[in-house]
Design a protein that fits this description.
This protein is 77% helix and 0% strand. The chain is an all-alpha fold. It has a single domain (8-216), classed as MetI-like fold, CATH 1.10.3720.10.
């Protein structure tokens, strides 16, 4: 049975999409921002390799990320005992795997250009470690906001990974992107277009927000 436009299932699909994308973006921001700042300031053997690895992960194909998470969460996998496969939680995990390197990479690149001068200024002013960190975050806030928006945009448009680990189950793990694929396969183009318009509207709103952030910064 297919969702009718503006019925309960239609709004359930939108709610599931927003729940998964907002949750995964929040977790990715909590992980990616501190890691990006730490990686820029840390000095250790093999740092260049870690940076290169993160940049590689920024371009990870969604189906590869989904497959890895699937293998980890499947019944015989390392975390199979948690029973998370084909659930919104599994979809969040897959998106976190995709988004965190993006957030981390954007923050790291900006910190590489600006953090040294900011830390030097903080040191001359006698700032403590936490005051320096706060100043760094404040000065890089535009980049951090943009990184989070970029991550959210990636999560909103994602289909391959969440299809693999979520299964596109009706009333449970079906999102707008997986619905578009299903509806297209079944020839219900009008409904697919509606979801597409909603996704494009979200993408446009994110771009407007990113531009506002850049102007304020």
């Amino acid at each position: 049975m297919l969702p009718s436009i503006f019925d309960a299932e239609f709004f359930s699909i939108i709610a599931t999409t927003l729940l998964v994308t907002v949750s995964s973006t929040l977790i990715s921001a909590i992980l990616g921002v501190p890691i990006g700042l730490w990686l820029q300031n840390a000095q250790f053997k093999g740092k260049g390799l870690v940076v290169t690895l993160n940049r590689t992960l920024m371009a990870t194909p969604p189906v590869v990320a989904g497959l890895v998470v699937f293998l980890i969460l499947m019944r015989n996998g390392p975390l199979g005992f948690l029973g998370l496969l084909f659930s919104p939680q599994a979809m969040v995990i897959a998106q976190v795997v995709l988004i965190t390197p993006i957030v981390c990479g954007i923050v790291y690149n900006s910190a590489e250009e600006n953090a040294t001068a900011i830390r030097r200024f903080a040191h001359t002013m006698g700032a403590s470690k936490w005051q320096t960190l706060w100043l760094l975050v404040k000065e890089l806030r535009g980049t951090i906001y943009f990184a989070i928006i970029a991550g959210f945009g990636r999560a909103t448009s994602e289909v391959g990974a969440i299809m693999i680990v979520g299964g596109n189950i009706r009333h449970h793990t079906r999102t707008m992107t997986t619905s578009i694929v299903m509806l297209r396969n079944q020839g219900h183009f009008s409904q697919a277009i509606v979801f597409g318009v909603i996704l494009m509207s979200i993408a446009f709103a994110l771009q407007v927000l990113a531009n506002l952030i850049r102007k304020r910064d």
